[in-house]
Amino acid sequence: MSKGIGAHANLIAEDEHSVMYEYGGYNLNDQKYRNENHLYDGAITIQKECFVEPEIHEKLKKMPSGRKRVIVKRIPVSVNYGKMIEDGAIKVENCSNCWKATEDDLKIDVMALHLLFYIFRRYQEDGKIPDIISYNV
C-alpha cells in the first residue's frame, strides 16, 4: 500500500562544474501539498566533484559452455551528501510543496534528500548523471 508521498526531478542545466535539477514534491494525504499542477519550483544544484565512483569488482566466471568470461560488477558506495550540503557543494532551494523539512538550521525538504540519494545511486549504477529521477512511496 502506498503512503502517498513522493517527488520528481528533471535535469535542467549541466556544465563542466555542476548540474542543476528542478524538482517538485507531493503529499496526497494533505490537500495543501497535493501538487495537482505538477509544479517543479524547487532547485537542487550539485557540484560534479560530489559524484563518487562505485567500486568495480571483476571476476572470472566459467560459463556452461566451458569458456571463461570476465564479469564486471559496479558496487555502489555510500555518499555522505549531508556533509556535502553543509560544506556548500550541494545547494537545495525547497519547492513550494515542502510538507516536511529537516530540523537543523538548513531546513531542507526531506523529499529533496531522497532525490539526492537516488541521483547518486543511479549515477553509480549507470555511470552517467540521470536526466530524470523520481521517488514515490
Description:
- The chain is an alpha+beta fold and 137 residues long.
- The protein has one domain.
- It is elongated and about 60 Å long.
- The chain contains two helices and seven strands, in the order βββββαβαβ.
- Strand 4 and strand 5 form a beta hairpin.
Comma- or semicolon-separated keywords:
single chain, 137 residues, alpha+beta, 5-stranded antiparallel sheet, two-stranded antiparallel ribbon, 7 strands, 37% strand
Note the topology.
Blueprint: E1 5-14, E2 18-27, E3 42-47, E4 55-62, E5 68-75, H1 81-87, E6 90-93, H2 110-126, E7 132-136
Antiparallel strand pairs: 1-2, 1-7, 2-3, 3-6, 4-5
Lateral strand order in the biggest sheet: 6-3-2-1-7
Tally of individual helices: 2
Largest sheet: 5 strands, antiparallel
Uncertain residue ranges:
none
Number of domains: 1
Summarize the structure.
With 137 residues, the protein is α+β, with helices and mostly antiparallel strands.
